[in-house]
């Protein structure tokens, strides 16, 4: 696997993960660490480069996060971004001041073409700014390498010591040539060669899994989602029949989904593993009867999922390893300890820790989602599974407002199927973050043929998003929506109205629950 590493030291900026992703897009392995990481640990890791993130503080405030000056004396190249750039200036004897007006948004920056950081970057380039403090005086030995009309130090550097800093955010898409700048930093300043590739990741992971597991038995909770599917295939390739996948069909999956998962992972599929499909819909519907509150439904589904899984695990008996589909954002978020709970997410990842097993295996814990997809493609998993849009663990249970019944599940499955079919047919699915149908709990009067109807309204949702933390309602062409609406009303019994959700996140959420 990769031997080169760049580390990101997080000072509370909102783009910490994005920096790591951009560096990895340059084929250089990158990890995020909190600013409390010790200098000894950094020395031990021997990274090829260090990037300091932005953050909400002002460096001259007493309790703002700092880092020992030694960091800049290790001989390892450092790139400070926003707060990170001010910290570098402040710690090395420069001066940081507060501006009267905040500089925010896309800004034209004039860069020094002699700087390695700006090699092959246009002299005037659009960058993303978001700051009130600024570097008023650069430290001794540094020179200014970029300016804007209002910011005297949009970038600075001391090339001899390999210290670089940008006031703007190269990691954000609005910085038009940001990836080029990061690539210049990791290749031309840090001297990386770019050894982070998914084919070698897959190969090395399979080898390591074989060594770790030996003759042991492995259990995997398979949901059919991207992460658990890729984890399962990695393990199947590593240990074959020593792996058992338990797929709990809770009766809240999309139309045909259970059969699709079985076709890939079951006995007729290409992988040589033990596959158990548990058809548990009656249990789930019984537990959900009469329950209308969304959080309560989530809790019930999560809990019941664990019970079913546990029962199956017990039947299999003494299992040595349990597979978890943890991915890198989960590691960063739990490790760096911040995130507000809007709703309790239930992943198959949230499995009990008291089933009879010795150890947890998390083969994807170093990967971002797009890397998981690339690994999946490398492993030969079909495109429709690898490029699947996210689907919540509690499934259609939270896309049905009010009580969940078998009849309502059927309605939302059929409507959603039509919606997805027409979106794909019209070719407008590219670029959509997520799109699905939900069943409102509203019934209203309609007229069909010569008769009165009193039926449900289906809500269609489609969003554009890059990180699922914020989203905009997508502009689906009207002609496509009209076809979907008339097909749903004509083909799905119990529906006489179709609506389109135009709300973004915030204030709404992506799911319609
Ligand atoms: P919201 O509705 O919170 O959704 O804006 C953000 C993203 O998370 C997905 N989601 C879930 N994923 N388990 C999951 O694995 C869950 O319980 C869950 N709830 C929401 C949602 O589909 C969207 O992609």
What share of residues are in beta strands?
Answer: 15-25%
Secondary structural class: alpha/beta
Main β-sheet description:
9 strands, mixed
Mean pLDDT: 93
| Main sheet: strand order | 2-1-3-4-9-8-7-5-6
Number of helices: 14
Supply Rg. Answer: 26 Å
Total E-strand runs: 18
Number of domains: 3
CATH class of the largest domain: Alpha Beta
Please bin the fraction of helical residues. 25-40%
- What's the CATH topology name of the largest domain? Rossmann fold
CATH architecture of the largest domain: 3-Layer(aba) Sandwich
The CATH superfamily of the largest domain is known as HUPs
Write up this protein.
There is one protein chain. The chain is of the alpha/beta class and 513 residues long. β11 (243-249), α7 (257-265) and β12 (274-279) form a beta-alpha-beta unit. It has helices spanning 16-25, 39-45, 83-91, 178-189, 198-213, 226-239, 257-265, 281-288, 294-316, 328-336, 369-378, 383-386, 406-426, 478-491; strands spanning 5-10, 29-34, 49-52, 78-81, 95-111, 124-137, 143-147, 155-158, 163-166, 218-221, 243-249, 274-279, 321-323, 359-361, 434-448, 451-464, 472-473, 495-500. It folds into 3 domains: 5-189, Class I glutamine amidotransferase (GATase) domain (Rossmann fold), CATH 3.40.50; 198-386, Rossmann fold; 406-501, 2-Layer Sandwich (GMP Synthetase, Chain A, domain 3), CATH 3.30.300.10. It has 14 helices and 18 strands. The protein has a 9-stranded mixed beta sheet, sandwiched between helices. Strands 12-11-10-13-14 form a 5-stranded parallel beta sheet, with helices on both faces. α5 packs across α6 (226-239), α5 packs across α11 (369-378) and α8 (281-288) runs antiparallel to α9 (294-316). The chain is globular, with a radius of gyration of 26 Å. Helices cover 32% and strands 24% of the residues. Residues 342-343, 345-347, 390, 392-394, 434, 468, 505, 509-511 line the site of xanthosine-5'-monophosphate (XMP).
